[in-house]
Design brief:
This protein is of the alpha+beta class and about 140 residues long. The protein folds into two domains: about 30 residues; about 70 residues, Arc Repressor Mutant, subunit A (Orthogonal Bundle). About 50% of the residues lie in helices and about 20% in strands. The protein contains six helices and three strands; from the N terminus they run H-H-H-H-E-H-H-E-E. It has a three-stranded antiparallel sheet with strand order 1-3-2. A hairpin with a 2-residue loop joins strand 2 and strand 3. The protein is elongated and about 75 Å long. The N and C termini lie far apart (about 60 Å).
Length: about 140
């Protein structure tokens, strides 16, 4: 918005000084609310952020093609990694390194690291083509 110089309010400084106590009170009240509750993004922002994170998950495409997300399923870490590496090779996709990026990608899909008597694995995910009748 453009305000011509000759139309500018020359008494603005005086009006702001007259309201200084109220303005300071409003600032302090807002600061206290921020410290107590933080910033609360709107639901639309939360939904868009969740969608962006899901789309940005480097494991999403492989999981959609080769896996079933099932809260009762448990798959060994070795089986998952070997299947993932075969898929990335076959489809010429860059690999997610083992470690934090791999674990956080699976965790973002709702999977949890699991340790059983037979070794390490992931709960919440199964390979589609694994013996046991999971759908293709």
């Amino acid at each position: 918005m453009f305000v011509p110089w000759h139309s500018a309010r020359t008494d603005l400084t005086a009006k702001l000084r007259a309201e200084a106590d109220a303005i300071l009170g409003w600032l302090v009240e807002g600061m206290m609310l921020y410290h107590r509750e933080g910033l609360t993004p709107p639901a639309a922002v939360k939904a868009a952020t969740a969608e962006y994170r899901d789309e940005s998950n480097p494991l999403r495409e492989w999981v959609e093609a080769e896996c079933v997300l099932d809260p009762d399923a448990v798959t060994t870490a070795q089986e998952l990694r070997e299947a993932y590496e075969r898929w990335t090779h076959a489809w010429h996709r860059p690999k997610v390194k083992q470690g934090k990026q791999w674990a956080s990608g699976l965790a973002a899909l709702g999977c949890t690291a699991d340790r059983t008597a037979t070794g390490r694995g992931w709960q919440g995910i199964a390979l589609r083509n694994r013996a046991g009748g999971l759908p293709l």
